[in-house]
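ok so I'm stuck.
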Amino acid sequence: MQPFCYKSGKLFCEDVPVAEIARKVGTPFYLYSQSALELQFRAFDQAFASLPHLTCYAIKANSNLAILSLFRKLGAGFDVVSRGELMRALAVGADPKKIVFSGVGKTQDEIDLGLRRGILQFNVESVAELRMLEARAQALEKVADFALRVNPDVDSRTHPYIATGARYHKFGIPIERALEIYRSAKQSRCLRIAGVGCHIGSQITSIEPFIAAVRRLKEIFLRLRMEGVNVRHLDLGGGLGIVYKDETPPSPREYARAVLTVLGNLNCTLLLEPGRVIVGNAGTLITRVVRTKEMSNKNFIVVDAGMSDLMRPSLYAAYHGIQAVTRNRRRSWTADVVGPLCESGDFLALDRKLPIVRADELLAIMGSGAYCFALSSNYNSRVRPAEVMVRGRRVKVIRRRERFQDLVRGETLRPL
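replied:
not stuck anymore, here's the structure
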């Protein structure tokens, strides 16, 4: 399905005109299609139906409680990387036995919470973390199920800021040390080897890096089985990319087919941690034109959303398609789409050929479902935008726009 499409020149989200929503909730706001979220989750999950598996949605992509609740009802588990994300998963009624805890900087407090709640497994990123996990399990009289996040030294062919699988990245344990660490952990009464895992990056648009990583993980998995370890899980992480501009990423079905071909009849449960591929193209950011500005060598479209609302273009020069909410026949020009913040890096697009627009017109920043609201901030004391969900003709605000009181909550007027 196409969650956002034009009808008689007006942009709709499912069966609702986007401009109508803007009139009711104001701008800027994030807008999500519930039908697209459901469809994309099912497409990914069902691609692996021939093998025991658990699709653990990566909360970091978009952590709104309504979205998490939707995925839980569809059978999802969750991949968390912080105490806050774990609390979000538990708040929507997630089964702890469907939660994996990833992340390179787990604290004692976070480990304790995961142990007390009995999560499925910790994805351990270092020997020091494994020692802390063992110590806390002993102190709490628990047995900690874990997998090593192996760094397979694979070039994921993505932006360097979101690549995580090479030996010079901060993530994971060097693949050549994995068996040694597993053998040592096997002796512990408070640790239980649950699986082998990796995560090589995000927005990956070719099959080859995934296949290289799976082959290396499979070798370790089989070696552990040969040594009598009842390893059960193969955690492939996430990272499958989407189309923002002209990318040609594999579909979930193509990705699954390639992975399953490499695994063969390996007797295990696959753990999968998709995020962007499920939510990325199910969302858009709606913003209003404040004014246009023409200079001798440059044109600007100034909008009411900025890098505090959508940081990806400023952070890693990410491309997002931009469409007028009302499509008219008009001339085009080349312009920068910029926000109101006091930073030259506050832009949503540079040198983009777009229709000439006027003040108060609406623009849709496409492909904004993943890592967009999640990266938003209150820089320049700006309130974060509302989030809105549409299903058919129904519209629901799933996060109200922040207010001034939200900005200063926790602060004091009294200096020392």
